[in-house]
Amino acid sequence: EDAKFGLSEINWGGPPGGGATRAALVTVSIKAANYLLYTGNPIDGREAERIGFVNKAVPADRLLEEAMVIARAVAPHHPTALKWLKRQIHGSLTIPDFYRGVEYEGMILSQMEVGDGYTGHHEGWKQFAEKTYKPGIESLDYADDPSGRSAKGKR
């Protein structure tokens, strides 16, 4: 809540570099990005949460606890699926056309299957189609994963 965020490069005499402008424009509204970029004024964690710059503002003494909540939510998912999801998210940012973005998602799924031999998502899709899928209630066994990973993950 008390952390300070800002894009203060304008205060140093020029616009930001290193992708900061792009990051601001895809993270918050153009109105909020313009405020941060043009003024160089910092904002606190509460304001950063309100404008969508961060997911959640928490007191400093609860930061580790809250970070662990997120880590525990992500950790059960299969590492191969997470790796390809990350590629899909970051790659999708560069595709302005919706339909090309959908094609890109399909390409990522194909690359995941061919490149890593991972097909663990097929069972989830099958259950979704059969209307037997219950998100968050049961676990999906990654038995068909060629890496032999035996851990179960959330669906």
Structure description:
It contains seven helices and four strands. By secondary structure, the chain is mainly alpha-helical. Strands 1-2 form a two-stranded antiparallel sheet. The protein has a two-stranded antiparallel ribbon with strand order 3-4. The longest helix has 19 residues, at 98-116. The model is unreliable at 149-155 (pLDDT under 50).
- As a whole number of angstroms, the C-alpha radius of gyration is 20 Å
Number of strands: 4
Low-confidence runs (pLDDT<50, min 5 residues)? 149-155
Q: Averaging pLDDT over every residue, what do you get?
A: 84
Task: Tell me roughly what share of residues is in helical segments.
Answer: 40-55%
Number of helices: 7
Structural class label: mainly alpha
List the helices and strands in order. Answer: EHHEHHHHHEE
Strand order of the largest sheet: 1-2
| Termini separation | 32 Å
Residue share in β-strands? 5-15%
Anisotropy-based shape: extended
Q: Tell me about the biggest sheet?
A: 2 strands, antiparallel
From the structure above, extract its key features.
extended; 155 residues; mainly alpha
Summarize, please:
It contains seven helices and four strands, in the order E-H-H-E-H-H-H-H-H-E-E. The strands form two sheets. A two-stranded antiparallel ribbon has the order 1-2. A two-stranded antiparallel ribbon has the order 3-4.
What's the layout of helices and strands?
Layout lengths: L3 E2 L14 H8 L2 H10 L3 E2 H6 L12 H12 L4 H14 L5 H19 L4 H9 L9 E3 L10 E3 L1
Antiparallel strand pairs: 1-2, 3-4
Helix pairs in contact: 1-2, 5-6
